[in-house]
Amino acid sequence: MKEDLLPKTISVFREGYDAARLKADALAGLTVAIVALPLSMAIAIASGVTPDRGLYTAIIGGFLVSALGGSRHQIGGPAGAFIVLVAATVSRHGVDGLLLATAMAGLMLLAAGFLRLGDYIKFIPYPVTVGFTAGIAVIIFASQIGEFFGLTFPAGEPGPLIDKIPAIAAALPSFSPSAAAIAGLTVVIILLIRRLRPTWPGLLIAVVTASIVAALLSLPVSTIGSKFGGIPSGLPLPSLPQLSPDLALAVLPDAIGFALLGAIESLLSAVVADGMTGRRHRSNVELVAQGIANIGSALFGGICVTGTIARTATNVRAGATSPVSGMLHSLFLLAFMLVAAPLAAYIPLPSLAGVLAVVSWNMVERAAILTLIRSSRGETLVLAVTFLLVIFRDLTEGILVGVSLAALQFIHHMAKGLRVTSQQEELPLDNSDYGTVIYRLDGAFFFGAVAAASAVLDRIADGHRNLVLDCTGIQFIDTSGANLLAGVIRKAQKGGVKVYVVSDRPEIRVMLSHHELHAQDIVFTSTLSQAQWAIRGNRI
Questions:
Q1: What residues form DSSP beta bridges with 524?
Q2: Mind telling me which residue stretches traverse the membrane in this protein (predicted)?
Q3: How distant is the alpha carbon of residue 16 from its chain centre?
């Protein structure tokens, strides 16, 4: 197997894996499992499915991501970023459509990994990632307002945010003080523990405390048991998703969205882990693992799997040394299901809404937003457009438009970065004056810079006898730039001007030869002084 498709688990065991590392990984895995237990159920419920499907995702998908992935510390499972897409898919196509879309997304991620596309997916511009993450956070928070305050929606809670706002306003008379108190208690406990005892599992402690308070006081709040009948105490048998050509075609856009977001989210998470540990992940094998994990999750009735930044960071801080910690985290979750499944029925849904409220608040990168606003108007525009489109239109549309705007901004800056300067010389030769004009090109000579360069280069005067194109400062040239150079050279030759091209880059000669311009038509030199000597009739 090629190195860029070799799972990190194999690399770890090649290095030597001893009892001390196993102990460290076991403690880290247990810590992450305690965090993942309430979070997986909360994400599943917010996504419009039953809480057990979130646990199936963390157990099956999380195990496969760690066992087969390209990061030593990546933790896979259901992610808050997917809530919007998953809930929309369930509302349109039901759970069967969701499972099929998840499996199809897995196949797409597999293909992306084997085609070595991982290095390109990481090129998503920073303002786009900050914008769509903040947009998702707003949507998640809005989706939990009803459960947080115990609101009742007679016609059902609408999905789009623009429809949700008036529905929430109309449902305010149904406000439940008990639900708000339980949700508020959960948020306060999480924040206090994070401030006073940051190493403690604040999410689990908050949910357990809220469950005990609600049970002891017999508060009239909805629970997992009252709404879903609890969760099963084990994994279901694997089965293929319902497959039909019509359903596959219908869920194809959803599958593409799952694959795109999954790739971005997992590779960003791996980059975060690299920054915390000094290690380097393998992006292509990470995509392969994500693909297999999504297929595995769908077979067991789970939802979309991706690398999760918060749980991965928790894994690193807890002292994990290898992917074994992620595999053990999944096994610990399975043990929790087998032993404590009946207790899950007592968990209040407002408490899980409080958990997701904190998660959505943490997703907003406030410092990054302020930095982008202070840094550049163009990047602020990319951030704002991505954010607003994610909220009011569609996540995929927001990402695509954001990337397109960032690309246009990049092209504009690169085009401005190309400099074309000229100087004229009178070089005496055989008692005559031979007028020479020298054009120096610096920067990236590509399609975005062609118009500006053409306006300068087209002003070549017929009175000159020598044209020197000093290309030593060109950092990059594409076919559009080469085509402009070829046109300038032909125009000069028609006017009887001798052309000298100064460059030590072979690709420039090759690209000009593709335009039927060869050494007999042009004098190629490696330095400007060599071109000047050639004009004076000296040997190079």
A1: 501
A2: 26-47, 53-70, 97-117, 124-145, 165-193, 200-219, 247-273, 285-310, 330-359, 380-411, 437-457
A3: 33
Tell me: do 377 and 441 sit in the same domain: no
Are 44 and 51 spatial neighbours (Cβ–Cβ below 8 Å)?
yes
SS3 348: strand
Residue 413 is assigned to a structural domain of this protein: no
The pair of structure tokens assigned to 15 is: 């290095």
**pLDDT tens-digit profile of 332-379?**
999 999 988 888 889 999 999 999 899 888 888 888 899 888 888 888
Residue with tokens 């194809």: 252
Residue 368 is encoded by which pair of tokens? 């990054």
| CA separation for the pair 105, 264 (Å, rounded) | 13
State the pLDDT confidence band at 50, using cuts at 50, 70 and 90.
very high
Report the C-alpha gap between 274 and 382 in whole angstroms.
Answer: 27
CB under 8 A, 24+ apart: contacts of 358-363: 358/187, 358/190, 358/191, 359/39, 359/42, 359/80, 359/140, 359/310, 360/80, 360/137, 360/138, 360/140, 360/141, 360/144, 361/137, 361/141, 362/310, 363/80, 363/81, 363/133, 363/134, 363/136, 363/137, 363/140
Closest by CA position to 534, among listed 422, 429, 421: 429
Identify whether the C-beta of residue 354 lies closer than 8 Å to the C-beta of residue 57: no
**Residues 66, 246: Cα–Cα separation, whole Å:** 34
Convert the pLDDT of each residue in 485-500 to its tens digit. Answer: 888 888 888 878 888 9
Nearest CA-CA partner of 223 in 328, 90, 415, 352: 352
E strands in 46-180: 76-77
As a whole number of angstroms, the distance between CA 49 and CA 40 comes to 11
The residues, any chain, with a CB within 8 Å of residue 178's CB and separated by 6 or more, are 150, 214, 219, 220, 221
Classify residue 60 by its DSSP letter: I
Pick from 532, 534, 473, 540: nearest CA to 508: 473
Residues 117 and 153 in one domain: yes
Q: For residue 127, give the nearest of 408, 389, 378, 363 by alpha carbon.
A: 378
Total domain count, the chain: 2
Structure tokens at 418: 């190309």
Q: By residue range, what is the domain housing residue 507?
A: 418-535
Closest CA to 263 of 252, 255, 273: 255
Distance between CA atoms of 376 and 353, rounded to whole angstroms?
Answer: 36
3-state secondary structure of 440: strand
Q: Are 121 and 403 in contact (CB under 8 A)?
A: no
